[in-house]
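Hi! If you just cloned this repository, the fastest way to understand the data is to look at a raw example. We've pasted two of them here, unedited. The first protein comes first, obviously.
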Amino acid sequence: MAPLPSPVAAPSIAVVGGGLAGLAAAAALADAGCTVTVLEARRRLGGRAASFDDTRGGGLVDACQHVAMGCCTHFLELARRAGFADRLRHDRTLWFIDPDGRRSACTPTRLLPAPLHLAPLLFGMRHFSWGERLRLGAGMVRLARARGAEREETAAAWLARIGQPPRVIALFWQPVLESALGESIDLVSVAAARKVAVDGFLGHPAAADLHVPIDPLGVLFGERLAGWLRGRGVAVETGCGVTQIERSAGRAVAVVHAGGRMACDGVVLAVPWRAAARLAPDIVPEAEERLAASPITAVHLWFDRQFVDLPHAVLVGRVSQWVFRSEAEAGAPGEGYCQVVISASRGLLGGDRAALVERVVGELREVFPGARGAELLASRVVTDPTAVLSVRPGVDAVRPPAATAVPNLALAGDWTATGWPSTMEGAVRSGRLGAAALLAGLGLAAPPPVPDLRRGLLVRLLAGGRTG
């Protein structure tokens, strides 16, 4: 192994990409005393966690609703440090609405240790018989104990093979796993599903809590997070797409962007994998077919009144998967706004957007009585065809690590080897991993890691391993 270069005082680092991965990398690098510049091609930060202008005068609207869970410790710690944790609504209750319109308020208890804390959540699902609820609980335990080769099956095939009832698969596993992983259960691996079950539900009494942004992501990331970084000396440049990473003697020496050339001591490449492949094709092969994307569709609806009387709801057995109501106060612009999110939306209703709006509005009128007299004023369908990395069997073997063969060039992005699916948490973790890899290449120490939620003893015995 070649010796590390001599440490330099305040090394100059270029972070290519202003999504959550790049911003998290910038924060970690600033903690380590680096001089950091973030270069983002778009005019707004946040990457795929973006907002658009509501032309009706309602301000910014998120292209797709993003939600963190209690297990997302790295994202929540970044939110706390950057000063926007108070703009994340904390929901402990998960609301399910079944095909007949019955509502189930499912709340984990804090009075029992993990995984027993889930009993009120699992057994509170009124749309299942008691036998189905017991089978669901047994299926979650079985998933936590999945080992070896079975983790490389698809979740749908595995759930059917272990005897999960079709109704339990359709009305729990499908909506929960597809919303958490952004991909169809017919395609995701058992390993990815197990990650959701163990870290997102079983591991800790607070793991399944929802943390829902109540301000647009463009405000939280583009203003609050970016402002905090600037206050710590990080330069943030938007509308500044990088076209080349210059290398010399096996090291990155500069980035070329729309405004010129920036010499640097290191680079964190924090862009989607196709863009990364264009800038560093020898590190991220563009032809890697196993890195596939999955689409997510958000249906934005503006009515003449607000009728969604829950903070959120999982609509099971329908085209609509999740509905989120507006946080606007009565009388404010957007008070009649809601958003419906549909994961794994490839080929949805043949791509007919008008038919999709009609179907979604019809489903809302079926489950929310107040919607039946509400007038639809406007709608917008936003589909991101590359919303998340498809976590199919075998994908973890080709997700690249943060460290590369170029000592002062590191990768970040929720598509890299984080051990997490493509989520805000995965993006933040990747940024910290990328920063740590780059600092190691420069002979510098990385900031201390953010602790995970500590798994309960029963869960450690059940699933093996430990966190925290």
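Ok, and the second one:
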Amino acid sequence: MKINKQKIIDNICYTELVYARINKKLKLELSKSEIEAYLLKVLKATEISFYTKIGKNYYITNEVNTIRITVNSNTFRIITVDKI
């Protein structure tokens, strides 16, 4: 199955709890809008070859920013962001 990068970018969404989780895991103190802008920038900059789908999630690995973004493939919600 081909991954549609633009569809992920266009439909990405967040839960209230994920903002705190992202700040904690990345050891940052960004506002909601700063997190959204940062992740959008990373998603756009990441080559499609670094987008993988395993089970019900997409995993977007960006080696430049040393992070992996986990996105639910049905709802396009950000689940978490991990340092790699």
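That's it. A detail worth noticing about the second one: The chain is about 40% helix and 25% strand.
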